[in-house]
Specification:
The complex is a heterodimer of chains A (277) and B (316). With 277 residues, chain A is mainly α. Chain A contains 13 helices and no strands. The chains are: A mainly alpha (277), B mainly alpha (316).
């Protein structure tokens, strides 16, 4: 009897907290389909499925919704590709190749994780201004790419993973006459797909959601990303909540889809990086 | 015959040297791009930050050498002192809250209950969504006529009699605390996973032994599980604190660049933003950045000292 009661209490606590975890998101979806006058009635569901908020943000905002989405996606995808290329090659070199200075350089990589972005913001901004990268021109994207091209955590994760791939595989290929580049592309990388997925998801989510650097670097409206757009529109829309929530819903949608598709993988991968990190 | 062997040996040595050199070059070329980016934009940039911080540095570059001028100016600047106070108060409250919440959630979902995978996934989702989306949503929920006050009203609270009349984010007495609640909630999922990773690495036999010795659940938690979670405590508190001292997104979203109302949401990082991009005092901004770095670094060292150096390595 006592055990059963405890179990129900536990289940009650879990259910309550999962309501706290997802009711706000349902609320944002529901608000995005309401009319402005309906918002403060605080009903869970809108009276009618009103899509005018979506029409409004699709047609009436500057920069356009398309431009915000394009920038967010273009930047996130490019940064993912850069992270994969630079992270995997460096991770492989640190794990498997012998060269002078390897260990010191790897410590240097780890040391960069200690430096907060907020300390870098002023000198990075001034450097980019001097390089002419803070502008309304496409070179502005280059500033973001340079800044975000490489992640210390990725190098760490790739290195860790490559260290655990059996050396025999590599030796067999070497006897067959394969060079380091071939070993890397034909043997190491195909065996490292879980970590490729991990780095892709972590990087995509981090870049897609980032507000800090875009608010510093991407000052021309035609380069704004979705989070930065949300920040800017808050001033404009004020209390016009349905379009604001429509923007929130649309900007969260890609992350939600990734999460729904791979939640089990994401949870396990986070557990894994927590143990290693 | 003998000369043949020596020749063969030197040839072998030479070819080994060539092979080594080739591997060195491959290794260096594999890390060249990331290392140069790190060298310039992470490590070299620190020296540049120190350099900039010594000058009155406007939009057009260095104007006048100030020495420690920016640093001494900062400690007499009331808004900056407010920002330090806010950031430290925020960190002091949000770190214990998010850690405790994360620990409780981890202990709950770690039990062998049906659907624990579902609960894990649900609790973690707020950590995946963007701060811009969640904070905007939070502002809607916390407006005077919003859902939060409606729920309070449902439980019999008279909103108009509340000391802040339900203006959670637009009253300077409650704005920072509201953001604390928001972030304790959004980060609890991540903290839960950090604890869960540690919990799953714990050998079940300790608990078994304690059980056969007649320990109850509370005693097991207090004397067996908690001490074994030391690596997670350290990790959660350290990363939580570093993140908390860098509060920016939620502050600028909820309070604008001034951290309104009445600077109650002005944080150290938001202040750097103001100094640089609204007042164009880049030297001053760089100086504050360095001060923030020193605070974060010394607090991290202090925690490391407090937890002992072994905690960092963990047992896994």
């Amino acid at each position: 009897m006592k055990i059963k009661l405890g179990k129900y209490l536990l289940l009650g606590a879990l259910i309550t907290y999962s309501f706290i975890s997802f009711i706000p998101f349902i609320w944002s979806i529901s608000t995005s389909f309401k009319t402005e006058s309906e918002v403060y009635l605080n009903h869970l569901l809108p009276q009618h499925l009103n899509t005018s908020a979506y029409v409004q943000i699709a047609t009436k905002i500057t920069p356009t919704l398309y431009s915000l989405f394009f920038n967010s996606l273009f930047i996130a995808v490019t940064v993912v590709i850069l992270h994969l290329i630079l992270g995997s090659t460096a991770g492989y070199a640190f794990a498997r190749l012998r060269f002078p200075g390897r260990d010191i350089l790897f410590y240097m990589v780890l040391a960069t994780m200690m430096i907060p972005d907020q300390l870098r913001v002023v000198p990075v901004y001034i450097l980019f201004v001097k390089m002419g990268l803070i502008s309304g021109h496409p070179s502005n994207y280059l500033a973001i790419f340079l800044l975000k091209a490489v992640g210390a955590l990725d190098i760490f994760l790739f290195r860790q993973y490559f260290l655990n791939i059996p050396k025999d595989l590599e030796d067999a290929a070497r006897i067959d006459g394969a060079g380091p580049l071939q070993i890397f592309t034909r043997i190491m990388l195909p065996n490292a797909m879980p970590i490729v997925a991990t780095v892709s998801i972590l990087t995509f989510q981090g870049t897609w959601n980032d507000l800090f650097w875009p608010s510093i670097i991407l000052q021309a409206p035609n380069h704004w990303t979705l989070p930065f757009g949300i920040l800017q529109f808050q001033g404009q829309f004020q209390t016009d909540w349905p379009p604001m929530m429509a923007l929130v819903v649309l900007s969260t949608l890609p992350i939600l889809l990734i999460y729904l598709a791979a939640q089990k993988f994401i949870i396990n991968m986070q557990l894994g990086t927590a143990v290693k990190g | 015959m003998a000369t043949d062997l020596t020749e063969l040996n030197t040839a072998r040595v030479r070819s080994r040297h060539a092979r080594n050199l080739k591997e060195y070059i491959t290794g260096w070329s594999f890390i060249a791009a990331p290392m140069s980016l790190f060298a310039v934009l992470s490590l070299g940039i620190l020296l540049y930050a120190v350099y900039i911080s010594r000058y009155d540095w406007g939009l057009l570059g260095a104007r006048q050498y100030l020495g420690w001028g920016n640093f001494t100016h900062s400690i007499h600047d009331p808004v900056f002192l407010r920002a330090i106070r806010n950031s430290l108060l925020y960190a002091a409250l949000v770190v214990p809250l998010q850690s405790a919440l994360g620990l409780v959630l981890a202990l709950l979902v770690n039990s062998k209950i049906k659907g624990s995978n579902f609960f894990r996934a649900t609790f973690y989702f707020p950590s995946m969504a963007s701060s811009a989306a969640i904070t905007t949503l939070f502002i809607l929920l916390m407006t005077p006529a919003g859902l939060f006050n409606k729920i309070l009203h449902f439980f019999g609270v008279n909103i108009s009699n509340l000391f802040n009349q339900g203006q959670w984010l637009s009253d300077s007495r409650t704005a920072l605390y509201s953001v604390i609640v928001l972030n304790a909630w959004t980060t609890s999922g991540t903290m839960m996973l950090f604890y869960l990773a540690n919990l799953q690495g714990i050998d079940g036999s300790y608990e078994e032994v304690a059980k056969t010795d007649g320990a109850n659940r509370w005693q097991i938690l207090r004397y067996i599980t908690m001490p074994l979670l030391k690596p997670a405590h350290f990790f959660v508190i350290t990363t939580g604190m570093i993140g908390a001292l860098q509060l920016y997104d939620q502050a600028i979203l909820a309070g604008g660049a001034d951290g309104s109302p009445n600077y109650s949401l002005m944080t150290m990082v938001l202040y750097i933003y103001n100094a640089c991009f609204r007042q164009f005092k880049f030297g001053y901004g760089a100086a504050i950045g360095l001060e923030l770095f020193v605070i974060i670094f010394s607090l991290t060292l202090a925690q490391r000292f407090l937890f002992g150096s072994r905690a960092w390595k963990g047992d896994n």
